[in-house]
Design goal:
Arc Repressor Mutant, subunit A, 42% helix, 11 helices, transcription regulation, five-stranded mixed β-sheet, LysR family pca operon transcriptional activator, 308 residues, D-Maltodextrin-Binding Protein, domain 2, TF_PcaQ, DNA-binding transcription factor activity, WH_DNA-bd_sf
């Protein structure tokens, strides 16, 4: 039996705080004051008799108990919203699919799959959310997303999730087409002579890029920019000598049409799995099953695929 002291405001505040990792951000999203949000979380922890967040770092992170509560409370809230929609006579023929997209999938793979889904299931509304890996996985666990398409989540973040690999993809350095290094032979240590744009620490490919730089003696190199967005990266690289380390799929079309150029390396960065993350203990809907099949078929024709 649910404790009668638990109110909807407790659940909403908890889920927003877990999703955003910040009480102040959660308070803004809920249009309440930060003290009110903090009090609400404390009330919920007192009712449950456990700490739901680890407050020792700059960001609030879920404790073991908090992760378990999020895994079940999030989908429960989604079911309540769906029940409300149905009770208010939402169109019976309309279905929904919520997909999170990391940059490596958002620019090519997912748009192609989305168009195919539209052809085969036109009554399904596809809602796509982009953002950092930690945020999308949090939304997946709480039920706000049905699947996340992108690189395989880092070890230690996959509890309660399953991962289906679609293909493997390289991380590459890209530059403007007339970059000085493209016209002559050069040493790897010369990378430090130019501004570097690296993936931020929250990006899945961040560690592999920094490991590569360390292996060539540039472990202490300080980036000028941290970014995985195509729109920002393309503009900065085209107008400067910046060298951008990014997943090949993000810039594939730019490389094909010549607006960006691949900087050749004697030893390419290792590829990494790209695929679909889903909740492992959730019934798979017809929309989810079809989208997964479409993604698998699209990946087999994907030009950046290395292995299946």
């Amino acid at each position: 039996m649910i404790d009668p002291q638990i109110r909807m405001r407790h659940i909403r505040c908890f889920l927003e705080t877990a999703r955003l990792g910040s009480l102040s951000a959660a308070a803004d999203a809920l249009h309440v004051s930060q003290p009110a949000a903090s009090k609400t979380i404390k009330e919920l922890e007192d009712i449950l008799g456990v700490a739901l967040f680890d407050r020792s770092g700059r960001r609030l992170t879920l404790t073991r108990a908090g992760s378990l509560f999020q895994r079940h409370a999030g989908p429960a809230m989604v079911d309540l919203r769906r029940a409300q929609d149905m009770a208010q006579s939402a169109p019976k023929d309309l279905t929904r699919l919520a997909v999170g997209a990391l940059p490596t999938a958002a620019t090519d793979l997912l748009p192609l799959a989305a168009l195919r889904l539209r052809q085969e299931m036109p009554e399904c509304l596809l809602r796509v959310t982009t953002g950092p890996n930690w945020m999308l996985l949090s939304q997946l666990r709480e039920g706000a997303l049905d699947m996340v398409v992108g690189r395989m989540p880092p070890a230690g973040t996959t509890e309660g999730l399953s991962f289906r690999q679609l293909y493997s993809e390289r991380v590459v350095p890209v530059v403007r087409p007339d970059h000085p290094l493209l016209s002559r032979e050069w040493a790897l240590t010369e990378l430090d002579d130019y501004p570097l744009m690296l993936p931020p620490s929250g990006a899945v490919i961040s560690q592999s890029v920094r490991t590569f730089l360390h292996s060539i003696g540039l472990g202490a190199a300080r980036p000028a920019f941290e970014n995985v967005s195509l729109a920002f990266g393309r503009k900065v690289v085209q107008r400067s000598d910046t060298i951008w380390f990014i997943s090949h799929g993000v810039v594939r079309e730019e490389l094909e049409i010549g607006t960006l150029a691949l900087l050749p390396l004697a030893n390419d960065l290792l590829g990494g799995p790209v695929g679909v993350s889903m909740r492992s203990e959730t019934f798979q809907t017809a929309e989810q099953a079809l989208m997964l099949d479409i993604l698998l078929e699209t990946a087999r024709q994907h030009p950046t695929r290395l292995t299946s």
